[in-house]
Design goal:
- This protein has about 325 residues and is an alpha/beta fold.
- Strands 2-3-4-1-5 form a five-stranded parallel sheet, with helices on both faces.
- The termini are far apart.
- It is an enzyme of class 2 (transferase).
- Keywords: Nucleotidyltransferase, Transferase.
- Its EC number is 2.7.7.7.
- This is DNA polymerase III subunit delta.
């Protein structure tokens, strides 16, 4: 983790906690909620780093003292991190955590606990955690990280300060992807697909992603030109690659990006276009279609297709229905 990633992902929240630390108003228990990749873990680690830093600078860690460096190495015993064991956080894991609660700090008077995917705590584990929340120790801090705060017990939520993490701005995500060495065209699209840098990196290296991207563009061109081959393209090119529901849903999402970009162009809002390399083609298509109602109807048909897939309607029937609705 580095300071820059926190500043890029959540500058407002970073400043909020800088002020809290500077004014010695840091709470004992926080629930960080937001989508994956929005910086929850990075901010929790940044706060922990500031708490343990030997040379803090106006509410910020120095990043160079012994404690800061040991956090980088994952070798600071008073910073305890917990993640699900398999599909859930089990009561034995929380019991071990409770044992740590009542131990003296190893190297300082402070202790910090970070629990990832806190919504995956079993009921027993969550109830066990209430002990800490009801009687937090001095200089002891707990950070619960979740993507679904509604799945956290109300008794836990009520004892935490809830901090919402906004989705990353697309430009920020795109810059992070470019910095990670991802191709600019892929970075444009992936920045709209996900906020999770690791997921985006995985997709960029996934042959299936690139195949779906290519086929979504090919089918999009056939659909917008009302080419009869759009219907034939379903059994001859799409079904062989759309092996399960998740692939089909993702494919329709990629198709939606094209139609939304086309709609932006038709309204003269080229700045909002995600896949700027296709801008010349989008302009030609917008001129051909003339009426933006056709684009919105196509978007509606794709959204209906996603609903049908989620209701377990067969993929071929869903895709052929999209073609028929856009003739």
């Amino acid at each position: 983790m580095n300071e820059m990633s926190v500043k890029e992902k959540q500058p407002r929240l970073l400043e909020l906690f800088v002020r809290s630390i500077r004014n010695q108003r840091l709470g004992h228990a926080y629930l960080f909620e937001g989508a994956r990749g929005t910086g929850k873990k990075e901010l929790a680690n940044w706060i922990a780093r500031t708490i343990f830093c030997e040379n803090p600078q106006d509410g910020n860690p120095c990043f160079s003292c012994r404690s800061c460096l040991r956090i980088d190495e994952g070798n600071l015993p008073d910073l305890i991190e917990l993640a699900p064991d398999g599909q859930s956080i089990k009561v034995d894991q929380i019991r071990q955590l409770k044992t740590e609660f009542f131990k003296s700090s190893v190297e300082s008077s402070k202790k910090v606990y970070i629990i990832e995917d806190a919504e995956k705590m079993t009921i027993s584990a969550a109830n066990s955690l209430l002990t800490f929340l009801e009687e937090p120790g001095k200089d002891t801090y707990l950070f619960l990280l979740t993507t679904v705060k509604e799945n956290i017990l109300p008794t836990i939520r009520s004892r935490c300060q809830i901090i919402h993490f906004q989705p990353l701005k697309r430009e920020v995500m795109e810059e992070l992807l470019l910095s990670a060495g991802i191709d600019s065209q892929d970075a444009e699209l992936l920045s709209a697909v996900t906020n999770d840098l690791e997921e985006a990196k995985g997709l960029a290296e996934d042959e299936l992603f690139h195949a779906l991207k290519e086929k979504s563009w090919n089918w999009f061109k056939l659909l917008t030109s009302s080419d009869p081959m759009a219907f034939i393209y379903v059994p001859t090119s799409l079904l062989e690659i759309l092996k399960d529901k998740s692939h089909s849903l993702f494919y329709l999402d990629l198709l939606l990006f094209h139609y939304r970009d086309l709609l932006y162009v038709s309204f003269g809002n080229e700045e909002a276009v995600v896949q700027k390399k296709q801008l010349p083609e989008y302009k030609k298509m917008a001129q051909f279609l003339k009426d933006s109602k056709k684009i919105t109807q196509a978007i509606e048909s794709i959204l209906q297709g996603k609903q049908a897939l989620n209701a377990n309607v067969q993929t071929q029937g869903v895709l052929e229905s999209i073609v028929l609705k856009n003739q």
